[in-house]
Amino acid sequence: MESNVALITRIKANDNKEIYRFKEWLNVFIRNNTIKEIYILCDEVEKYKSILNNKKVAYLLSDSPTSPTAANQAIDEISKSIDFFIIASKEIYIENQSINDLISELEKNSNLLVAGYKFKLDDFELNNELENYYSDEKSIAYKVPWNTFAIWNRNLFNRFVKEFDRITDNMENNKLIVWIDSEAQKVDRRGMEDGLAIAKSVSKNIKVKYRLMRKTLNWNISKKHDKVKQHREKLARKDKVLRYFMKKKGYDVEALRKSSM
Length: 261
Known about the structure:
Layout: E1 5-11, H1 16-30, E2 35-42, H2 45-49, E3 57-61, H3 71-75, E4 84-88, H4 96-108, E5 112-120, H5 124-135, E6 149-153, H6 154-160, E7 175-180, E8 183-188, H7 193-204, E9 209-218, H8 225-249, H9 253-258
Parallel strand pairs: 1-2, 1-4, 2-3, 5-9
Antiparallel strand pairs: 4-6, 5-6, 7-8
Helix pairs in contact: 7-8
């Protein structure tokens, strides 16, 4: 029996050119027959609806569509008939097969909470940096799927997670220090809501699993200096952020490691 899948994504565009690129990206999901519902978190509804209006698509007005826990708003709207939901960023190059492969992973294993891909970058130096993070055996943040592109089992999510923890929105307004090119950078302690949700689930049920796929997808980031800087800071903070929030919540690092498939 074919699964019913929803997509959750977000947009905060500055111009029509960016919106049209988003439309092209979204069409891959619209054309996939397994994707029954699409929820777009956005800062303005009419601006996007005038360019992309489809019966599968629902626009949800959000004060902060790019926040780590913005997806909670869309999860509350998903129909009861939906089995799995995908959370994806428009920065990831998506092909239909990549969508179908993710869906198949959850269909094959009823204990699999979430599955997702690794990523690669066009820029040689930035990609080397990303690969170094992935290859660090001590890391936990780089061993779990991210909501950059991941699929969640709705039933398991509702039982063991319920919602992405708002602590990851940096409600405490904390900063942490990361090192980039031998220079200390002060960054927000936010994000890794996905990893924290997995850690919460495995702390409640050791049978719950997650899978980071071997296949890598292209991650298209802006070449602008400030955007590259933000991207590198985000990568540098991931492991520290996840460990901090897990300690705060009392979730076990080894339990998280052992739940990988």
